[in-house]
Design brief:
Blueprint (H helix, E strand, L loop, with lengths): L8 E3 L8 E6 L2 E6 L2 E6 L21 E4 L5 H12 L3 E6 L2 H13 L3 E6 L5 H15 L4 E4 L15 H29 L2 E6 L12 H21 L4 E8 L9 H8 L14 H8 L10 E4 L27
Parallel strand pairs: 5-6, 5-8, 6-7, 8-9, 9-10, 10-11
Antiparallel strand pairs: 1-4, 2-3, 3-4
Helix pairs in contact: 1-7, 3-4, 4-5
Length: 321
């Protein structure tokens, strides 16, 4: 059997006890939790460096702009769109990161271009949009993925500059890129915008005040944009990632963060790509204003997942306030 990412799954018998561990061998991981172990394959043709090109009837030839696509979730989404025949504009604030993603797509036989821009700067965004239009004359899909997580600060450690920078990139950036792109989509007869939310939109992380506030704002923005842009045949939805390993965590950290996730592991960037393709495709032609969770069931449960990085023991002392 296979999971949503195409990885091979299988139940490997009862183990007894209540522990949790992961064994890697021959490209497989066996996660042991309680009396059940789940085996899944790390072998995926698209996780890093695609070697299989396929087509999708409703996405082949579409021009897709993905912001923050130099690494992590954005990179995986850009690669997955290219794998089904879309033409991808890869944005990152760091040109070398964007070029790296474009090179990976080209090596796999896909088509992509690098466009550098700071999404929090309107002039920079305008230049990016102009570059995409000059090359391809249209934008069919926008994935607003660019965002900041760090620096992570407790509420008492924060200042206005920290707050404004995270809000400017995460929330204002969604608006600044969507606003001109939606006008283009309206003139060409329609399009699709996918925003990037987080579990912090409806729950909360310690020391993530600004980040969580922006994600709540992004979900509200998604609903409002969907209402305003629906009559122009522009659909607007959001993805809500769970705990996704975008930095290559050590095995111990992966186990810790995955132990309370119902599917028994934290996610990989590739896990986000299927939902992105679905929302952009004709299969989702009657879906707008919605948020799709891709979190391994993390938010479906009453217990809290192990996601807090800054424990209360690291909070500022009252004497230091």
């Amino acid at each position: 059997m296979r999971d949503g990412s195409g990885a091979r799954l299988g139940v490997v018998g009862g183990l007894g006890g209540g522990g949790h561990r992961e064994i890697a061998a021959d490209g497989l991981s066996i996660i042991q939790s309680g009396s059940v172990s789940v085996m899944y394959s790390h072998q995926s043709t698209l996780r890093e460096g695609m070697d299989l090109m396929t087509t999708h009837p409703s996405l082949a030839g579409n021009v897709v702009l993905v912001t923050g696509a130099g690494n992590g979730i954005g990179r995986a989404i850009a690669q997955r769109f290219a794998s089904v025949g879309a033409i991808v504009a890869v944005n990152d604030v760091d040109r070398s990161n964007a070029d790296s993603t474009v090179a990976a797509i080209a090596e796999a036989g896909g088509t992509a271009m690098a466009v550098t821009a700071d999404v929090s700067n309107a002039a920079s965004v305008a230049s990016m949009i102009e570059s995409v239009l000059a090359a391809h004359d249209r934008i069919d899909v926008l994935v607003n993925n660019a965002g900041l997580v760090e620096p992570m600060l407790h509420f008492f450690e924060a200042d206005e500059a920290w707050w404004r920078r995270i809000v400017d990139v995460n929330l204002t950036g969604h608006f600044l890129v969507s606003h001109p792109t939606a006008r283009i989509m309206a003139r060409q007869g329609g399009g699709c915008i996918i925003n990037m939310s987080s579990g912090g939109a409806t729950r909360a992380h310690r020391a993530f005040t600004a980040y969580d506030a922006t994600k709540g704002g992004i979900e509200a923005l998604t609903r409002a944009m969907a209402l305003d842009l629906g009559p122009y045949n522009i659909r607007v939805n959001a993805l809500m990632p769970g705990s996704i390993d975008t930095s290559g965590l050590a095995v111990e950290q992966r186990e810790l963060r995955g132990e309370n996730v119902p599917l028994g592991r934290i996610g990989e960037p590739f896990d986000m790509t299927g939902a992105a393709l679905f929302l952009a495709s004709d299969d989702a032609s009657y879906i707008t204003g919605d948020v799709i969770k891709v979190d391994g069931g993390m938010l479906a449960q009453q217990r809290s997942a192990t996601v807090d990085i800054k424990p209360p023991s690291d909070f500022p002392a009252i004497a230091d306030l």
